[in-house]
Request: fold
Amino acid sequence: MIAINTKDKKIKIGLEIHLQLSTGKLFCKCPDMNNSGIKGKFSRKLFPTENESGDVDVAALQEERKNVIYEYEVSDNSCLVEADEEPPHEINADALDTALQIAFSFNSEVLNAVSVMRKVVVDGSNTSGFQRTAVVSTGGYVTVNEKKVGLTTICIEEDSARRVESGNDHTVFSLDRLGIPLVEISTAPDIETFQEAVDVAREIGMRAMLTGNIRRDSDAIRQDVNFSMGYGRVEIKGISKLSLISEALIAEENRQKFLSEAIGIFLERGGFDGTVLIDYTEKIAKSESKIIQKGIAAGNRIFAGKLENLGGILKSGNYRIGKELADALKLFSIGGFIHSDELPGYGITQDEVNEIKKFLKSRENDAIILISIPESKKDIAQDAINKRVEKLLSLDFSETRAANEDGTSRFLRPISGSGRMYPETDIPTIKIKNSRMVELNSAAPKSFDQALSSFTDEWEISRQEAEIILATGRKKEFIELAKLWGKPREMSRMILQSIPEIERKYRKKLEYGDLKTLVEKIATKNYGRISLEMAIDQCISGKSIEEVVISDDIRPLDRNELKIIVERIRKSGDIRKENIIAKVKNETNRPVDPKIVMEIYQNS
Amino acid sequence: MDFARGTKLTIKYNGNVMEVTYISRDEDYLTVKLQNGYNITIPENKIDVLKSSEPQTVKKKRITLKHGNGTPISLITTGGTIVSAIDYETGAVHPSTDIRRIIDRYPYMEEKYTIAVREFDNILSENMQPEMWIKLAGVVKEELGKSHGVVVSHGTDTMSYTASALAFMFESLTGPVIMVGSQRSSDRPSSDSFGNMEGAMAFSSTNVGEICISMHSGTSDNSISLHRGTRTRKMHSTRRDAFRTVSGKPIAEFKNKNVDFLSEYKEKSDKISLSDKIEEAVSMVYFHPGLSGQDLEKLSEGKRAIIIMGTGLGHISQSLFPSVRKIMSMGTKVVMTTQCMAGRVNLNVYSTGRELKKIGVVSAGNMLPEVALTKAMYLLGNYPDEDFESMMNMNMRGEIMEREFLGDCY
Ligand SMILES: [Zn+2]
Reply:
């Protein structure tokens, strides 16, 4: 066996952290929040623009070969810009400021001018066929566990459309996410351990949260991981949870380790010259295999092919070359294939297997495959398999993969060349004034601790509460609500304890907009904390804000009303200083001010 | 620091040494492309150039101007571009008239058409002038002599002016003349130009004998509409489906590689007839409250006809009547259209209208104002003055619709 020592390979990890901003969309006036369902649908095709040097970008070409019609669902928070029916408006100044502030907080060198580029993306996730993106700063660093990890660039860009459905020849996207500003923070490949990757991602996320402009949706923060252990750079896209970063890395390390071992065996046996798919439909037409029969009924042909020297490593033990080939086929909407490591099986008998082997003149170490596809897809399938095997043989595993929910990942496309960007001519270069730079720099938090201290001092809330508010990105909301309410401490407790409790009770969330309206209205009525909590409770339970606010239930009992209740209790007998409050509360569901009750009791 | 675009530079910026490609310079700022494809713009005084190497000159690629083996179609380009290529090294976009690049996108076209490109002129749509219509008409005639049909690529801004001018100049045609444009330029993957062109090719191989416009039916890429050149208006500045047949249905629709006819049209004829004189001394006035008689007279000076876009049924302020009389006494024709998006002018309903009629203002029916303009230019160029009013009122090329129906676009 050709020795491949994975221990000698040094692991290098780089991160790209994407943070959605809550400032409204980047190049139009649409809000980043979507409030309603589908308002309409349309469909488009995308044609990759030819590269001057003759070749269309690799990744773009691969998408084109898929020949897909893209369908788009129009959301409430989209306009002609997202539909690619109108050029972009000027860049959202709040979003740009936030990106610059983040850049300053990581000591990244902010550029004096921002040039927006078009990055060609023809998988349908951008209606225009490109993503608008711009570098705002270069360099910088983040310190984690006393180690400096370098940053390469910080960019501001538009988020892509959300994939709703992927079918054979059609894919559906929603426009709700398209155009939401993203700040992309890229680190150098300085990270050496999986835990370090998690720590760096967490630190970057927390620091950015301090701007108060990061969205709090479940997929508002997404991580891409660049990983290499000596077989080329693999990019794993779209890891939505911090906890999945190390799982994804462990899975990838194992994949590459076992893959390189399997390829070692394959190479030692002598590699292969490429497979040729042969129409085997007639010969297997009588098989009882459901896959075969279903395929024939659907008008497919059944093709057989020999994979030289790949027997026993397509799927056995830790070796999974079969999955690599299946992933490559999936890209062309080919559901998969059956190979000899799984046979007999799928209703195909040993006799049938032997017959195919004989037919293909298969030797001991060879594998055979069966694949059910329309005649028209034969060349594509054959090509996809051969290209994939060639690539694996070169021990260059570089590619772009997509993260799965379970920590594993799947092949997405080849790594895109760098040459797929050109200037966005609809947006002139944005020059940034020095005075604005100075202002944003001084406002940028240089560390989480520093930000925490000044926040705690300013609002006179506990450090613990302040930390939660900052780390969960609720700074802006808190300040807004605290100002409306006038009592910051009450408000922080409300946000961190009372509201989550009520939300748990009804298993329903209260929209921030609704909360703000409630706080504002109840504050102007001069009702207290209990009234607000009752109002929130009623609102979450399903009542409309208008209804709740004018309802008598949340109005605190006034002095006269309390007097009547106290008198009534007094007549009924046992009344003491110790039980008066509880007794009054027993008599009513409305808010009661204990101070007034005490006064009435003592003065009568 | 001046370099040729595309020069490879090794620079020191912010303490880092980087390999970049020089793009451009604007005052004290340089724009360079980083290796990851991004352009960054940085002040010149923050950069040290350590090394530079001249850009490699790009081989000029051969352009194919004729391709395919099927129905012969001529493609006349007026915008200098039907496709674009991008030099990702420098970010430059290169317009091209290479027909292969269209056919590569629709391989089935290769068997269906033989497309020959004729480069007419490279002008922006807004710079199109009446004299160009005359030249273009000549080229159309020439190309129709060689082909089954003609496709004319044209900027969208003045496309319907050119279409209606050509429509009047050609009394009969030996094949379809289909104008096509795009609302999203062809350097974008989402460009509508490819779909519009695919439709135009299909329309140009039918038996239509009119000047038409081929553009998206809706925002989706699944349907292309064929509009009559004399009834079409660009109704939106940016949308793909900006072009609409006003007060009627499109002539045809192209869907799933098929042409479906939706309304009547004039078939192609055995002979071509072209009257290519155009009177340029015709102008248009948009009436608005506050428009003074002096303004109106100035705009009419030296004109043989003036098209007024009046309000509603075709009205202008009574204070302008003396000026209208004066203009007409100098021999200038005054034509009344409406500034409403659609509908007919009618000078009989209100006294203002009746008076205008009495003065001798010509009513343009439901002709679109811009069509009334090209028609007046055509009539004054080719027919005696005394026929002007009667011919203005005559439906010559489908420009006047005698009947409008509920449910049609307006
Ligand atoms: Zn929008």
Q: What stands out?
A: Residues A 25, 28, 30, 78-79, 81-82, 179 surround zinc ion (CB under 6 Å). Chain B has ten helices and 24 strands.
